[in-house]
Specification:
Elements (H helix, E strand, L loop, with lengths): L2 E8 L3 H12 L4 E4 L3 H5 L7 E2 L9 E6 L4 H9 L14 E4 L5 H13 L3 E4 L2 E2 L2 H5 L4 E5 L2 H13 L3 E6 L3 H29 L4 H10 L5 H12 L8 H18 L4 H18 L7 H8 L19
Parallel strand pairs: 1-2, 1-4, 2-3, 4-5, 5-6, 8-9
Antiparallel strand pairs: 7-8
Length: 310
Amino acid sequence: MAESGSLGWIGCGRMGAAMARRLLAGGHTVRVTNRTRAKAEALADAGAVVVDAPRDLADCEVVFVMVSGNDDLVEVVEGPAGVLSDPRHAPAIVVDCSTVATEVSARVRAACAARGVAFLASPVSGNPKVVAAGKLTLAASGSPEAFAHARPYLELLGRGVTYVGDGEVARLVKICHNVLLGVVTQALSEITVLAERGGVSRAAFLDFMNHSVMGSMFSTYKSPALVHLDFTPTFTTRLLRKDFDLAMAAAHDLGVAMPVAALSSELVASAMGAGLAERDFAALLLEQARRSGLELVPEDVAVDDGLEAP
């Protein structure tokens, strides 16, 4: 029997820790666990209760998961010390915020259903600084009843959560989101290189863009990276290419033509071939400059990323 109102959190990396802190700041007691215990213990100062393994969260009402990939999700849910491994207890709902393959999500959903546990796929858009600023967005899919139950907690994680349907459709929504991320970043790289080639500094051009009708939260918070040429990864070019591959496979299966996405995918592959695979995907700017014969240098200008925490 799950304890009403109790929350569990699996995965205390940079993103998971930032999200768990939002629940703690909302006044909830949250039990947390992480493969590297020290990362979970770093949340103790915010009031988190650290436990040894996902199994120790089995009596929580809602358990959130934010892990690195497919195998990690299967392990923390179905593994020997997973949240479903206690024969006496199981949570009411497991909410997975990780980015995983649709077939893995479906497998874990089936394992949860076999124990009478609802499963929500709820991938996110943002990075730790976006989370801290309260601007994270989430999509969720699963039963409407499970979504209604988990919604008050999901809404604490950011500025909006959208229910997109049943099953695994939230995974497709996240892939579509990341394709747009790549297409927009490639387009932004092209016009920024064009402006600089014509004598306009990147800082000035991006400041203009961000204050125009074409500006966005994304273009604003990526501007410091583009101006300072700091491509410390928040999401690597390799991971972006993986999502393009998934999107093109889905487009093939669903009979959807995606010519702009297909070209952008090849340009992302070109950036990987140029040695940018493990750098932040905003490094598409560097490959665009190389193709244009332009050598970029960092600009020593203060740039607001628009993500000051409230």
